[in-house]
Amino acid sequence: MSAIEFLAGAPVLPAAAALRPLLAQQWQCGGAAAMQAVQVAAEVPVALVFNGISHAVMMATPLELAEFAVGFALSEGVVEQAHECRDVQVHVHGEGTPDESRAVHIEIPPRHFMRLKERRRALVGRTGCGVCGIDSLQALDLRPESVPAPAWRDVLDVQAVLRPFEALAARQPLNARAGSLHAAGWATPAGELTEVLEDVGRHNALDKLFGRLALAGRLGEPGFVVMTSRTSYELVRKCARLGVPAFATISAPTTLALQLARESGMHLWGLCRPPTALRYV
């Protein structure tokens, strides 16, 4: 059984779940302040609960949480295949209150659950974090899997890399209204942008993207990841675990991100801002 079940009741519009209306003062140099209605991105605790045991609490935008949970389970090595995430249920707590939160319950096979218990990584995530919940240097996983080297990747040119970035803004409706969300997208080898997921956390956005692709049976199809963030080592690590051969971001990488990309064989593009992009070698 692998059906996704939502327990929150009636569906809510994305803007209603992800954006909250507030008032702010708009100031101008040499002028008076005026009140203005604005939209602010929601950021709530989301607990990921595997077989009844809470494994992680991430601060996230409360949308596409089934995709988020499945993508997290895959990119963090909790499971190996999307179908191993069974009976995914999203519970809403205290909606609209200061204590608002979500809990995503997932059933995974016993062998994966035993391995998860051994890792004992009850981590608390933050939107800018990297190693939250890792309690020792020995627990830090810096050995990425090798990624495939398809023929299309070796001839991927700058036009194809930049094409999805030219289309990203129009595919970010939440960020257009609130101005504070990251986006992770999937592009074909020709540069066609086919999926875009948004979240206040860059890691969350990437996990949502992987979850969306996995639930549609599209993981492993030719393509590459594009993101509106810097290239952190955690993002490279997640992409390598799922066999993504090329990764492109709007900002620059860190030295550790470059190291992991080289070790995995991934092609890394950064500072993708039309009309130029950097390919790190």
TrEMBL record:
| UniProt key word Transcription | no
What GO molecular function terms would the record report? sulfur carrier activity; sulfurtransferase activity
Q: Which UniProt keywords apply?
A: Cytoplasm, Molybdenum cofactor biosynthesis, Transferase
Sequence intervals crossing the membrane: none
Tell me where it mainly resides: cytoplasm
Q: Which NCBIfam families does this chain map to?
A: fdhD_narQ
**Protein name, UniProt field:** Sulfur carrier protein FdhD
State the organism named in the record.
Answer: Pulveribacter suum
